[in-house]
């Protein structure tokens, strides 16, 4: 009985992890699009690579977190 319970528990963890990975891939694509656009615009303004990398990483991370907080729905 205990082996079956452990197996069911592990399967549930696997399914939940699979959904989380799929969600992370979507977030990654959005971040990359934001970062690429920002970096190109920043470089076109004559700023250096490192400055643009730091600026765009920060700006896109903040944008990503802000969207997640706005779309957050507590589970009740």
TrEMBL record:
Task: Enumerate the Pfam families for this protein.
Answer: Ole_e_6 (PF09253)
Judging by the UniProt lineage, the source's domain of life is: Eukaryota
Q: What does the UniProt keyword field contain?
A: Signal
Cleavable signal peptide: 1-26
Tell me the Gene3D superfamilies matching this sequence.
Pollen allergen ole e 6 (1.10.287.720)
Name this polypeptide is given:
Major pollen allergen Ole e 6-like
Q: Which organism is it from?
A: Olea europaea subsp. europaea
What is the organism lineage in this UniProt record? Eukaryota, Viridiplantae, Streptophyta, Embryophyta, Tracheophyta
């Amino acid at each position: 009985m205990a082996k079956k319970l452990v197996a069911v528990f592990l399967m549930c963890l696997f399914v939940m992890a699979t959904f989380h990975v799929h969600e992370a891939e979507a977030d990654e694509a959005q971040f990359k699009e934001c970062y690429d656009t920002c970096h190109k615009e920043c470089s076109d303004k004559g700023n250096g690579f490192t400055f643009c990398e730091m600026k765009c990483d920060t700006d896109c991370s903040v944008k990503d977190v802000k969207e997640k907080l706005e779309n957050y729905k507590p589970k009740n």
